[in-house]
């Protein structure tokens, strides 16, 4: 929503395939985040990046990879090593990494393994 | 490590009645607390935040939240609920050594009945 675009909205993956989820922002925010949402489990952090060309693992990074080559873009790749990738994926940004800033979220990508 | 607990999976209220959605937190150092709302198949939207100052914080759509340091709580409130308030609500905390990222609760589903 707002200045964050996530695409596609729905994505289907076959077993053994890698897929990439796009997140683009025009808010000029420094920090970007990927969260995974499963029913009844809230949001869990996959990866985050506070500046270009740098990123850190979150709580559930295994089976995922990211890059931050441009300030505006933070794509997430779900690899075949992720055994249970079916979930709703949310990208978020904050103006700065400091604590006082809340998140702005994209509208999400729903990934389903078929 | 920081953590957030939302003890109620579901809150049901009648339209026009006051509502409370509970949140407790644990964090080293000063807490920075946030409430977000999520409508079906959408990203989260920021409602309000506590950084410092008055313990009662006012936010969007008539919501407010009360910070209680001794009880480590940050409950979301609204004096008169609307049917359109029905949604999934998340409490989040930033601060301490994990200032670069937020930790979310599991969410509380609010249902307001006419």
Description:
The complex is a heterodimer of chains A (114) and B (114). Chain A is mainly β. Chain A is built from no helices and eleven strands. In chain A, strands 2, 4, 5, 6, 9, 10 and 11 form a seven-stranded mixed sheet that branches. In chain A, strands 1-3-8-7 form a four-stranded antiparallel sheet, with no helix packed on it. The termini of chain A are far apart. Chain B has 114 residues and is mainly β. Chain B has no helices and twelve strands. In chain B, the strands form three sheets. In chain B, strands 2, 5, 6, 10, 11 and 12 form a six-stranded mixed sheet that branches. A four-stranded antiparallel sheet of chain B has the order 3-9-8-7, with no helix packed on it. The model of chain B has no long low-confidence stretch (mean pLDDT 92). Chains A and B meet through strand 4, strand 5, strand 9 and strand 10 of A and strand 5, strand 6, strand 10 and strand 11 of B.
Which key phrases capture this entry?
heterodimer; A: 114 residues; mainly beta; seven-stranded mixed sheet; globular; B: 114 residues; six-stranded mixed sheet; four-stranded antiparallel sheet; 12 strands; 0% helix; 53% strand
Question: Any chance you could write out the topology, listing elements then pairs?
Answer:
The complex is a heterodimer of chains A (114) and B (114).
Chain A: E1 4-7, E2 10-13, E3 19-25, E4 31-37, E5 43-51, E6 54-57, E7 64-66, E8 76-78, E9 87-94, E10 104-105, E11 109-113
Parallel strand pairs in A: 2-11
Antiparallel strand pairs in A: 1-3, 3-8, 4-5, 4-9, 5-6, 7-8, 9-10, 9-11
Chain B: E1 3-5, E2 10-14, E3 19-21, E4 24-26, E5 31-38, E6 44-50, E7 56-58, E8 64-68, E9 73-78, E10 87-95, E11 103-104, E12 108-113
Parallel strand pairs in B: 2-12
Antiparallel strand pairs in B: 1-4, 3-9, 5-6, 5-10, 7-8, 8-9, 10-11, 10-12
């Amino acid at each position: 929503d707002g200045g964050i675009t996530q695409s596609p909205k729905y994505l289907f993956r076959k077993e053994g395939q890698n897929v990439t989820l796009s997140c683009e922002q025009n808010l000029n925010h420094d920090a970007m985040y990927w969260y995974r949402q499963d029913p009844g489990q809230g949001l869990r952090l996959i990866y985050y990046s506070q500046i270009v060309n740098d990123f850190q693992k979150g709580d559930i990074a295994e089976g995922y990879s990211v890059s931050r080559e441009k300030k505006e873009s933070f794509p997430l790749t779900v690899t075949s090593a992720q055994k249970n990738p079916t979930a709703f994926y949310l990208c978020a940004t904050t103006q700065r990494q400091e604590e006082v800033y809340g998140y702005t979220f994209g509208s999400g990508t729903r990934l389903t393994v078929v | 490590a920081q953590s957030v607990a939302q003890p109620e999976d579901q809150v049901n209220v009648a339209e026009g009645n006051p509502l409370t959605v509970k949140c407790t937190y644990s964090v080293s150092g000063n807490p920075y607390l946030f409430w977000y709302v999520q409508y079906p198949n959408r990203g989260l939207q920021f409602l309000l935040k506590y950084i410092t100052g008055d313990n009662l914080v006012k936010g969007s759509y008539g919501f407010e939240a009360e910070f209680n340091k001794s009880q480590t709580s940050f409950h979301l409130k609204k004096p008169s609920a609307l049917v359109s308030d029905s949604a999934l609500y998340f409490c989040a905390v930033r601060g301490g050594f994990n200032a670069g990222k937020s930790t979310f609760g599991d969410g509380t589903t609010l249902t307001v009945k006419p």
